[in-house]
């Protein structure tokens, strides 16, 4: 994946291009271009615009200044049914909308694809996700009978069904707003692994997260926002420097190297008296 804020590079084909995008008083002068699959993590403090940008990339928020092209076509030109074939979007977790069995809820991801549960391949894809996301034992329950982390994994499963490369050859983009929130360590690692595999299969993955160390060790690239503006983009190790973290998060940090990997830790706190 390549992201550039340089408008001169925007004449080459890109999956996703934003030119001079401004939205209300929430996003300012956004110029980005993403030209192939990869796993991009969207970072920034609370209120910096991550969810707003993801909603915009999903085509949900269209009333913005500037231009957004998905697969070289203005997002405003997409009929909603076609948009739903190209991208899936997991908004920030919200409570279950109604008491629907887990399996039926996940199968809602098939709806935009025009595939029913009678399709054997669809059932195989769903069953594999149930197993990998450790929710197979929950399928008989209703969505309003789950813990927060279980519900989050069900939401992720429904999103992944929609962009499954096996079921949907038109899918190109998977957008996830804080997919790791509420997940324990084991399930975070599994979701990260699934997202990596999805990106390796050619689907561009863009996910917002708050854990800088996960970004440092798992992202192909990061995009760092502060107050609605892009302040850094590119390789995580180059963007997430001690100086940039101080500038964006107002936190003093240090970099630690352990077994050849870098970790960001908060700088030693002053000893209290
Ligand atoms: N519906 C809304 N109407 C007006 N302003 C909003 C609305 N939703 C969010 N905002 C504002 O837009 C800005 C960006 O919010 P956004 O939710 O995109 O941030 P975020 O980076 O996703 O934050 P967080 O990490 O807390 O989820 C914030 O100043 C927020 O207060």
What does this structure look like?
The chain is α/β, with parallel strands linked by helices and 273 residues long. The protein has one domain: Rossmann fold. It is built from 9 helices and 13 strands. It has helices at residues 50-57, 80-86, 102-107, 120-132, 148-162, 185-200, 212-218, 236-239, 242-249, and strands at 3-4, 16-23, 27-34, 38-43, 65-70, 73-74, 87-90, 173-177, 204-208, 221-226, 229-234, 253-258, 261-266. The strands form 3 sheets. Strands 7-8-9-4-10-11 form a 6-stranded mixed beta sheet, sandwiched between helices. It has a 5-stranded antiparallel beta sheet with strand order 1-3-2-5-6, covered by helices on one side. The chain has a two-stranded antiparallel ribbon with strand order 12-13. A hairpin with a 2-residue loop joins strand 12 (253-258) and strand 13 (261-266). The model is unreliable at 1-12 (pLDDT under 50). The structure holds adenosine-5'-triphosphate. Residues 26, 44, 46-52 line the site of adenosine-5'-triphosphate.
Q: Would you tell me the overall average pLDDT?
A: 90
Number of helices: 9
**Radius of gyration, whole Å:** 19 Å
Largest sheet, described in full? Answer: 6 strands, mixed
CATH topology: Rossmann fold
- Strand order in the largest sheet: 7-8-9-4-10-11
Label the overall shape.
globular
Reading off the top of the CATH hierarchy, the class is best stated as Alpha Beta
CATH superfamily: P-loop containing nucleotide triphosphate hydrolases
How many individual β-strands? Answer: 13
Second rung of CATH, namely the architecture = 3-Layer(aba) Sandwich
List cofactors, ions and other ligands: adenosine-5'-triphosphate
How much of the sequence lies in strands comes to 25-35%
Helix residue percentage = 25-40%
Sequence stretches where pLDDT stays below 50 over 5 or more residues:
1-12
What class do helices, strands and sheet pairing give?
Answer: alpha/beta
Note the run of SSEs as H and E: EEEEHEEHEHHHEHEHEEHHEE
Distance between the termini: 49 Å
Tally of separate domains: 1
